[in-house]
């Protein structure tokens, strides 16, 4: 999976969560894997950053490290520029986290996502445990065959979908 594919998978997860759960969109962790993409919904996500950090640190210990997941996504509904939107942050081993967002359209769906940009290290500090967990995985630990990443799969997992961005493939999402 390429980093740009991770962005696409996380954005599709946001669309999926909105269509299945409605608003408000709950905080959800996206854990792409070689066979499936797991969505871990956090319906009681705390409101303060320190407790959020602790929750995600535990999730990283329980899910990311033992399953050697080399990338992650986070999505939630938030106010952006005075308007309701879905914010999507995503990161991977050897790739700094990025963020994108989409406002809600008149029908309650999502508009097109804005281009992603690097996530400021001081923004969303509660996400640091996820990035630290994937960065701690060595290339040899992550799924794959060796110390160097496969050029077609630098994140260390096979694409969890068919097709490409806009290519009509279905994502095997498994909400929890």
Describe the overall structure.
The protein has 176 residues and is of the alpha+beta class. The chain has one domain (3-175). Helix content is 25%, strand content 26%. The protein has three helices and seven strands; from the N terminus they run H-E-E-H-E-E-E-E-H-E. A seven-stranded mixed beta sheet has the order 6-5-4-3-1-2-7. Helix 2 runs parallel beside helix 3 (128-136). The model is unreliable at 140-148 and 159-176 (pLDDT under 50).
For the structure shown, list the relevant keywords.
single chain, 7 strands, 176 residues, 25% helix, 3 helices, alpha+beta, 26% strand, 7-stranded mixed β-sheet
Q: Can you summarize the main beta sheet?
A: 7 strands, mixed
Alpha carbon gyration radius? 15 Å
**How many structural units, i.e. domains?**
1
* SSE order: HEEHEEEEHE
First and last CA, distance: 23 Å
Mean pLDDT: 84
How many E strands? 7
Beta-strand portion reads: 25-35%
- Helix % is 25-40%
How many helices? The count is 3
Query: Which geometry do the CA atoms define?
Result: globular
Give unreliable regions as ranges.
140-148, 159-176
Q: Based on helices, strands and strand pairing, what is the structural class?
A: alpha+beta
Strand order in the sheet with the most strands: 6-5-4-3-1-2-7
């Amino acid at each position: 999976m390429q980093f740009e594919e991770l962005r696409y998978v996380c954005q599709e997860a946001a669309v999926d969560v909105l269509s299945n759960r409605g608003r408000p969109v709950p905080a959800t962790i996206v854990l792409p894997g070689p066979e499936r993409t797991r969505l871990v919904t956090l319906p009681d996500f705390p409101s303060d950053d320190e407790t959020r950090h602790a929750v995600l640190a535990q999730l990283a210990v329980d899910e990311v490290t033992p399953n050697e997941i080399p990338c992650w996504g986070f999505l939630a509904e938030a106010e952006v520029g005075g308007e309701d939107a879905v914010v999507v942050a995503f990161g991977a081993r050897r790739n700094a986290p990025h963020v994108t967002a989409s406002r809600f359209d008149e029908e309650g769906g999502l508009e097109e996502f804005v281009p992603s940009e690097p996530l400021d290290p001081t923004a969303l500090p509660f996400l640091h445990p996820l990035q630290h967990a994937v960065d701690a995985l060595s290339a040899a630990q992550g799924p794959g065959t060796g110390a160097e990443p496969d050029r077609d799969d630098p994140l260390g997992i096979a694409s969890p979908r068919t097709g490409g961005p806009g290519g009509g493939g279905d994502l095997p999402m498994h909400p929890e």
